[in-house]
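User: I'll paste a sequence; please echo it back and then give the predicted structure.

Assistant: Echoing your sequence first, then the prediction.
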Amino acid sequence: MMTKRFFLLFIVFAFVSSINTRAQVDESYFNYMDLFDLQMVANPEISPDGTTIVYERHQYDVMTDRRFVNLWTISFSGDEHRPLTSGKTGYGSVTWSPSGDRIAYTSSEEGSDQIFIRWMDTGVSTSITNLTESPGSLSWSPDGSMLLFSKFVPGSPSSVRPDMPAPPEGAKWEENAEVIDKVTYRRDGSGYVKDGYTHIFVIAAEGGAPRQLTSGDYNHGSPSWTPDGTILFTSDRSGNADLDPNNEQIYEMDIESGEMTRLTNKRGPHSNPKVSPNGELIAYTGYEDEFLGYQLTKLYIMDRDGSNLRMISDDIEQDISSVTWAADSRSIFFRYDEEGNSKVGNIKLNGDFVQIAQDLGGASTGRPYGGGSYSVAENGRFAYSEVSATRPSELAVGYFPTRMANKKLTNLNAELFKAKKVGNVEEFWVESSVDDFRTQGWIITPPDFDPNKKYPMILEIHGGPHTNYGPRFSPELQFMASRGYVVVYTNPRGSTSYGADFAAYINHNYPSEDYNDLMDATDYVIDQGYIDKDNLFITGGSGGGVLTAWSIGMTDRFTAAVVAKPVINWYSFVLTADGISFFSKYWFTEKPWDDPEQYMERSPISLVGNVTTPTMLLTGQQDYRTPMSETEQYYSALKLQGVEATMVRIAGSGHSIYAKPSNLFRKVGYITGWFDRYKN
């Protein structure tokens, strides 16, 4: 009898059989079904005394095609490694009580997401809520008696209700119409937006009825406690947040009286405010908004009342996030990306800073984007999720301010990779052919690579566009390499982690010379001598889809292309994407009808008359970030031009096609199958 595992494997490969007849993957190579054996570390949380770490262990279930998460604990020394939970559900948002005797976390083990408390000495755990909406942003009060959290609060639907006759008894009429009156009416990954707002609540740590602290038709985020028991949060309470986004302000609230004080008086964004342990200062991230697509996120501090504001990260040319005060209130830990590497730094209040960890990575199975998180104990011990170019995320620890080497505590996939080969990943840099910039990239060679042979090459382009690739394990790209392709990925201008000038180059200028950066990288890899110049292929998703479509409009050097979840027409995109008020205001200087030429001159659709490259379009059916209508426009235009074109619509997928393993397999299968078809 066919096993369930084998049956799923059979189905996964059957769907590409019609276009992919050449791909034969050696059994020793890392391949689709190995994804279900991977275990990945994420979101470690270290106890206040630095002795114990609780972390999330992520896996995929082959029978449900979904990710599940359990919590594990381990000592700082690497001993006493054991599970706290089991099963195929979800656990997350772990936070330690100030005394370290309990943790709070969220779980869906009772059917819907609730807040749980676990007593660490006895191992007893219980849910303390019965919520109808998922909680988030858990935070303990300084004395450990209460928990702060946020959740969505449903609001009233539109008041537009037509006078309708009732259907006769037994009649089957169509369902009522859906009435929409919001500016942002759908979001990728969550669908059509429900009426309501996110508010902040407090609940006793022993359970009971939660109390809502904020109100009104405004969203509230980033809640945290101050040492004296008030709370900080961010909100745009201007009443115009839908049409004028990116203007959150910082507020302080007395939770007993409900009195609120606005602490910032300049335009936002102001993000993630945290009060120093001594209660004297507030740190937050943000920037002086110039209404541009990329603006460097900086670190600010101000006095507790909002006065004496100063920026302390002037010497850091990278975006700052995830700030945590040191216990002595004299420095701040933060996360940043530098040259495609995610790092943790520590900065003193005078601006002096040092790197304390690198190679952070998350539990991602898609492309090699930045990620990962860290946490710090009161004594300077810290934990973080560490990744390499050829291995998924593991748990690592360090100790600040000592200069001892950081230590990796877990090796969850050691046995798997004794049996499976992955492609080697090599870094390279290439000088720009148009100016003084340099482009960093990486080459994945197939397992059992022979430099004396010739290989087909895939240029894979990241999205964003303001993000970065790096030396991070990528099942998606390794699957391509296992099929005999050299895979090249780079960070062209517009990418983050190379300073503000490099990232901001494409503000109101995208695509532009980022295309030249991609071609420079292609030429560099060809010059290494092992690439078959007659078998060059190109693909990318989201912003990478934009650049793929732009590239094949600029050159015919690629044998075939796959344009994944693209923007093809900026005019239609800003009116149909899930962030219409942001994209039209920050990525362009005018609304599309006031300056249509500005939108068209950077739209790949403007170059479609030049395209001769056989092209596949691939997009999720529920993609609301780069809607299916963008794909449909390009598909129709290519057909009208007589270009060989195929459109693939991925069922059950939004913008993040890799969210379900089977759809990740489909994505890779269709891409490499299309390229196999056109190999010379």
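The chain has a mean pLDDT of 95. The two ends are 41 Å apart (CA to CA).
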